[in-house]
# Entry
Amino acid sequence: MTDIKAALRSQRIETPSWAYGNSGTRFKVFAQQGVPRDPYEKLADAAQVHAYTGIAPTVALHIPWDKVDDYADLARHAGEAGVRIGAINSNVFQDDDYKLGSVTHPDARVRRKATDHLLECVDIMDATGSDTLKLWFSDGINYPGQDDIRARQDRLAESLAEVYDRLGEGQRFLLEYKLFEPAFYATDVPDWGTAYAHCVKLGPKAQVVVDTGHHAPGTNIEFIVAFLLREGKLGGFDFNSRFYADDDLMVGAADPFQLFRIMYEVIRGGGFTDEVAFMLDQCHNIEPKIPGQIRSVMNVQEATAKALLVDRDALSAAQNEGDVLGANAVLMDAYNTDVRPLLAELREEQGLAPDPMAAYAKSGYFEKIAAERVGGQQAGWGA
Ligand code: PSV
Ligand code: MN
# Structure
């Protein structure tokens, strides 16, 4: 139990700046009270999540959603609030120029513009002290014949190589894949295999990031995790939950058992370290945002605690004996353990409230931001 507690104390989960802004579907964005008007206020909200959970000390930025004049100043502000800047997320999907793609666009001018944005993101890493760049490309085509699938791979490889060469000491990029959306017929980085192949060719500073919402229904994500870890190519996660497609719901809400299986493979494969970034990539469209993030962090923590409880010796023994039901029972025993008392105890040992949700609700922070943050433009997609 001492080992499990030590492992849980070392856990780090990164929250995304965009989770604190307004979000919605293509049908409607529902504005909420107290939503941040700028990146500084987003960091203040993220600091609340860290204050009550104790395990969310970094915040991912998305550029240009979090564009500021002085990134060093933003990083300083983060530090004063009690958090640090985490991964820098590029955005080459919200400009009219990118209608037919960004780094895979047939026009060299558009490709140049997109790659320059990625390089700018590395400059922001330098200014903020971030060591991770996250690349997701909406690039793809809607119709057979619309563009040359092979040529698009060549253009992608060329841009990635330029960005890779710009990375400094201690910096890396994570390449994110997504099955479909917004392109429907052929996405240029649709799956882990495509991302993996590009990363292998580039070298050790290029790794794959697994967004749990970016697979076909029924995909065995923990297999992908095991494979990538075995190859040293798992760079991190964008955690969220899905029922249908890229739903971006709270991680562990739709399928907590899947999250447990993923965390088990992470631990089994030696990925429970700082080398793997455990990030959330979510929107809180109808629920309040700060509690939504606290709940999500707790969901990952609970899945991790259960995965740590797996009796690995008993599991290996059962596996080696070909004891199918025995092996399955070892996993299920861990999954079915109620770890909430253990986590409450752990928090109290660290001087935190045992129930982060209740402690935040009682703190009065929401009432304060709802009263203070009036006027101005609330942050949201594209703002
Ligand atoms: C794309 O769906 C994605 O998962 C990428 O990580 C983007 O950067 C993020 O969502 C934007 O919310
Ligand atoms: Mn993502």
Summary: The pocket of alpha-D-psicofuranose (ligand 1) is lined by residues 18, 89, 136, 176, 178, 211, 238, 246, 281 (CB under 6 Å).
